[in-house]
Amino acid sequence: MTDSENAPDILPGLSASATRINTKKLEGVPWDHSGEHPGSPLFWSIISRALNIAWSYILRNIEADPPPEVEGGVVSTSTHINGLVDPLALINTQERRVITIGRHDLMTMPVIGWITRRMGSQPVIRKAELSRGVGDSDFAKRINQRSLLTMSHCVASGHAAIVMPEGKSHQDSKLHALRTGPLRFTLNAACIAHQKGLPAPVIQPVGLHFRCHHWFRTDVYVEFPDPIRIPLLPDEDHRKRLINGEWVEPPAEEVIPLRDRLYDELSILTPDAPDWETYRAWHLLGHLRANSSGTPLRTLKEEVLAARFVRERLRPSVGDSELVVDAREAAEILYSNDLDARALDQSGRIKAKPRWMIGVLGVLVMLLASPITIPSTGLQAFVAWYAGDRTDEGLDARTTHHMLGAGLSPLIFWPAICLAAIFLIEGVTPMSPVYLAISMVAIHISNLVFLRGYDMWTDFATASRSAKLASSDQGRRVEELVRSINPGLGALK
Questions:
Q1: Model confidence, pTM
Q2: Any idea where the domains of the chain sit in the sequence?
Q3: pLDDT tens digit string along 221-259?
Q4: How far apart are alpha carbons 287 and 310 in whole angstroms?
Q5: Residue-wise DSSP of 80-117
Q6: How does pLDDT run across 196-222, given as a tens digit for each residue?
Q7: Domain over 3-268 is classified CATH 3.30.70
Q8: Inter-CA distances, 299 with 64, 76, 215, 221, 296, Å
Q9: Helix axes 276-292, 300-314, angle to 10 degrees
């Protein structure tokens, strides 16, 4: 059996929202089987700017490879462990207008549904709902086929699609089984493009690497390997029926091999570890190996590639070696103190120098920006934090709430606050639009300054935890483990 066939295939738990199927709103979701994008171009230009703002707020250090250049449509896919932040990462690292497909309630719930419908997003009613008696199977089949055909025509016409092929967000360090829906509409997109004489679309696997995916202001590295070419189905009647607006299922003997290939390509780009404890151990070993060679790891990208190197060197081993056992213990002590291998210096000792000045400077910077940031964005930030820590969607949805708070601010809250302030100060004047634009730019700049101060305070807090650990029995145990690991690093060359 292939790795794809052995992958975890666990139906996700259903949130309260997922159990409510709004048939009227699902019927009204915009769709198009001509190749035109079903969303609003004007709204896309607005929402894409709001998403860029959210991207800059919820993440700290952002690294992204340049995506490969292709002529035809692109179906971008990745693992899915970070809620709506995962598709946000795929949207913000390419220039094309995108179309997305996702869980039905994302198109029908208040506020978010209003936005996704105008973006042209397409709904699906998943096996997870139907197997639990949520929804009518005939209605689900009709909506799903309509959505898949819309996706096929859009991709064939050169648009970019964003798909999470696991069909759910989860918390595992290994890729889950892939749903066949994305592969089916992708194969049909290649057929439609061929019939129309358009460039063939491709599947673009994407590696999404977060330092700690559920943390606010974490780091991210977005990785783009070579795309996967989509085979053309030989059945001309199949292709003609698609052109005529009929959804036709591609043969399983074409779908399954493409699914398995995508699984193999995506697995390389994920932690692909037995558990997160092992993956953190690989990161630690990557750091120690780099430190021993005099080239410390400076960026998340370097850490990801170093951990992957360790993974591939250790993969042939049966069971955990003493090297990995010691690394797991050391990494878990660091993790339990909200630290990672960056807390170690090149000699393998825990950094013990507090950074008081950076902490004081961070507080001063936040105070400087707070007269603008707190009134304009403070409420949204508080609600995002509160809801994210209490959501019934799981840990992976925590940063979804952070993203929504940041993304909805420039769409709804800032204009309302600015217009109210302008009216109170100036009344209604022809200059109101100019004042509004200047005010919103000022809020954005103030928020970036505030977040820079927050980052300084975070660095101070991290250094303080490191110094505290260095003087503890746990810290001495970490240093003892590192000393026992270092002689064995030669096995990783």
A1: 0.91
A2: 3-268, 276-344+479-492, 356-470
A3: 999 999 999 999 999 999 999 999 999 999 999 999 999
A4: 10
A5: --STTHHHHHHHHT--S-EEEEEEGGGGTSTTHHHHHH
A6: 999 999 999 999 999 998 899 999 999
A7: no
A8: 12, 24, 17, 9, 9
A9: 100
